[in-house]
Design brief:
seven-stranded mixed beta sheet, eight-stranded mixed beta sheet, alpha/beta, D-Maltodextrin-Binding Protein, domain 2
Length: 428
């Protein structure tokens, strides 16, 4: 099975127009929407493609990761954009074929888009965690049949290529296993490598990556992150403003409620709905003198927001060393934050000893929240609050059931994402 990647734009886009309009296009930056997480194969291709477009068109091309619901959130966003060629989507058979067959979509895949070009094709591979005893496909099928009630398979979301490939495999082999949806195949593959998932189907480009040694030969431009996102503007959520460094420098905005975040692969700020929902949820809790644990901290914005809002201390943990480095660099851009009250550390949620806190923020994925539910509950002090984000709407009930014993205090949603605030009972 292969995944074909195409670039598409909203129908009637001016990239195929004629006359004066075609002669002046593009006159402003272009947004290239990627329906999956930063760091995955689709995102990697998009960023290489964006750089080549920038050189040939003479305009900035901003890569925007809009994840969730097997790519339908990103596709719907492009449909709603003006059909002028300035919002372009990277899609493939999952977003533009499979989703049309299994979801009731709010857009027409045949009539709402104009294809531009085939970019790449990529076969699907079946990968397993290292401890699986099978040495070939025959042994693997036998092992799955013998352990089918215990086996979990990661997917890039309901209806994603990794999900459909798994269903096809079950059909031809007569096997069964549980699917665990993630925001993209990148995070799912990380959990396979870490041993938290048993197997998954993934593109060759990403499935083989952990076994390849890659050495940088030449970096032509160290300024790519700023350049590719230089038109990002501040995001306001309640009393908190999240801004890129160039905005703070240009405006001199260093107000107590502004958090400056360095550019990164996904910017990692309020430009994603899950982060905005967490920022709003934090402001509904009395954080005065509270200890806050921020799991999946990414850019560190939620830890910094917690201290802004009165927390005595915030600890941000992520299993990605690059994310923690980004968080440390961003913290240095916020000299107004009190010294020593924010700590960032690399750690594995499933294996490390988690500190106990008054408030725990877990901006993760639905699958990981379910998998780590018991550990997350225990990390919350009796009477404390647990904010859970990264939940897609179809996962809502399953995720909340995993946290039985918590009292639902608040629930909010945006762009198909759901965030819960649960309260651990004093005797729970």
């Amino acid at each position: 099975m292969k995944r074909f990647l195409i670039a598409v734009v909203a129908a009637a886009a001016c990239v195929i127009a004629t006359g004066a309009q075609a002669q002046t296009y593009p006159t402003r930056p272009i947004t290239l929407v990627v329906p999956f997480t930063a760091g995955g194969p689709t995102d990697t291709i998009a960023r290489v493609f964006a750089e080549r477009l920038r050189v040939s068109l003479g305009q900035t091309v901003m890569v925007e990761n809009t994840t969730g619901a097997a790519g339908t959130i990103a596709v719907g966003k492009v449909v709603r954009a003006a059909p002028d060629g300035y919002t372009v989507l990277i899609g493939h058979w999952s977003t533009h074929v499979t989703n049309g067959a299994i979801y009731p979509l709010t857009y027409d895949l045949l009539n709402d888009f104009a294809p531009i070009s085939l970019i790449a094709s990529n076969p699907q591979l079946l990968v397993t965690k290292k401890s699986v005893p099978a040495k070939d496909l025959t042994e693997l099928v036998a092992w799955v049949k013998a352990n089918q009630d215990k086996i979990s398979a990661g997917t890039g979301g309901l209806g994603a290529a990794s999900h459909i490939s798994g269903i096809y495999f079950q059909g031809v082999t007569g096997t069964k296993f549980t699917f665990v949806p993630y925001r993209g195949t990148g995070p799912a593959l990380q959990d396979v490598v870490a041993g938290n998932l048993d197997l998954m189907f993934d593109q060759a480009a990403s499935a083989l990556r952990p076994f390849l040694r890659i050495s940088p030969v030449d970096i032509a431009d160290e300024d790519w992150a700023r350049r590719s996102q230089e038109n990002l503007t501040p995001i306001s959520v309640g009393r908190i403003v999240v801004a890129p460094p160039w905005h703070a420098l240009a405006t001199g905005d260093r107000s107590p409620r502004t958090i400056v975040i360095a550019p990164s692969m996904g910017f990692g700020t309020g430009h994603h709905a899950t982060t905005r929902l967490c920022l709003a949820a934090l402001q509904e809790i009395d954080l005065a003198d509270a200890e806050v644990l921020d799991l999946g901290t990414g850019s560190g914005v939620l830890s910094m927001a917690a201290v802004h809002l009165g927390a005595a201390r915030a600890v941000g943990i992520d299993d990605d060393p690059d994310a923690i480095q980004s968080a440390v660099e961003s913290l240095a851009l916020n000299p107004g934050l009190p010294d020593g009250r924010i700590l960032f550390a690399v750690g594995d949620l499933m294996t490390m000893e988690l500190p106990v806190a008054d408030v725990v923020v877990a901006n993760l994925t639905g699958g990981l929240l379910i998998h780590a539910a018991a550990r997350l509950r225990q990390a919350v002090k009796p009477g404390g609050a647990l904010i859970m984000s990264g939940v897609q709407a179809p996962e809502r009930d399953e995720v909340w059931r995993a946290f039985a014993g918590l009292e639902l205090e608040a629930e909010s949603a945006e762009d198909g994402w759901i965030t819960f605030t649960g309260r651990r009972l004093s005797n729970g």
